[in-house]
Amino acid sequence: MINIFTVDTEDWFHANYEGTDFSDDLKESSTVERNVDSYLEHLEGYGCKATFFVLGTVAEQFPQMIRRIADCGHEIASHGYAHLLVYRQSPEEFREDVHKSKSLLEDISGRRVLGYRAPSWSVVKESLWALDVLVQEGFLYDSSIFPTKNFLYGIPDAPRFANRPVVDGREAGILEIPPSTFRAAGLNIPFSGGFYFRALPFFLIDWFTSSVNSSGEPAVFYLHPREIDPAQPRLELSLRDGFIHYCGINGCERKLLKLLKKHKTASIADVFFSTRQTSKL
Ligand SMILES: [Zn+2]
After folding, report:
1. Distance 77 CA to ligand 1 centre (A)
2. Distance of CA 13 from the midpoint of ligand 1 (Å)
3. How far is the CA of 14 from the centre of ligand 1 (A)?
4. Which of 25, 125, 197, 271 has the highest CB neighbour count under 10 A?
5. What pTM was computed for the model?
6. Number of domains in the chain
7. What pLDDT shows up at residue 275?
8. How far is CA 3 from the centre of its chain?
9. Residues 137-190: pLDDT tens digits?
10. For 32-60, how does the pLDDT look when each residue is reduced to its tens digit (9 = 90+)?
């Protein structure tokens, strides 16, 4: 079965822990372009495709990188403009942020942007209003609701597979593509990206992937450019946040290569929408 690979395309310093900021000075130490080029090389090497959820500020800094990603046949989608948590914005601020990022990415790539992923999965119960804004802004799918619960995000009883969310008794009119989880002991256990992917051994990721596939569903993976780069500059974080952010960073690229070798991947547009996002605007 074909699975889905996604990359939240942002820089090494885009993290939403308390006290982190994204000052312009940090842009000089950017690692995103070299990391994205590694992903492009690995995906090409194994004949895999992916969806790149690109942050607006990164697209502004590296427009040629966005064109390179699109020219390789991958999907360009939106990760918002300024990496702000959805539940810390008003609906109007959110609308402005996603509108800006969508038009920027469409201008640069010349292709229609179909999907959105919130920074840090920040579409939670209190910010489900965001789905209406996404529909009004012309998005066809969202991939921001994590069906688990931790200190930063999650809706633990949200559906585990692609679905059309119902908010206040009304269908929101958008397709939701959640990241994959493994169901055990009445809980959804994340495995398919970020900290969980870095922390778990490959055989478990492989096993959980097969389990998702045996339900007839594609697994949805997600990583960040920085997660395959042990040489990146380091953020000053608390013990807990530092562990979450850097755990398993040395072995992540190797694990990614094993994954791509064993499980062929495509973009969300490839799997859920008949076009391959090749239609020019
Ligand atoms: Zn992000």
Report:
1. 13
2. 10
3. 6
4. 197
5. 0.95
6. 1
7. 56
8. 14
9. 999 999 999 999 888 899 999 999 999 999 999 999 999 999 999 999 999 999
10. 999 999 999 999 999 999 999 999 999 99
What pairs with residue 35 in β-bridges? Answer: none
98 Cα: distance to centroid of ligand 1 (angstroms): 14
Q: Buried b / exposed e across 30-65, counting CB within 10 Å, b at 16+?
A: bbbbebbeebbebbeeeebbbbbbbbbbbbeebeeb
Residue 90 CA to residue 73 CA, distance in Å, equals 35
Q: Which residues have C-beta under 5 Å from ligand 1, the single-atom ion?
A: 8, 10, 119
pLDDT per position as a tens digit, 214-233: 999 999 999 999 999 999 99
Identify the domain containing residue 121 by its residue range: 3-17+30-272
Tell me, what CATH number does 79's domain have? 3.20.20.370
Query: Are the C-beta atoms of 25 and 218 separated by less than 8 Å?
Result: no
pLDDT mean over 82-89: 95
Separation of CA 79 and ligand 1 centre (Å):
7
Q: What's the angle, vertex CA 259, arms to CA 258 and CA 264, rounded to 5?
A: 125
Examine residue 277 and state whether it is found in any structural domain, yes or no.
no
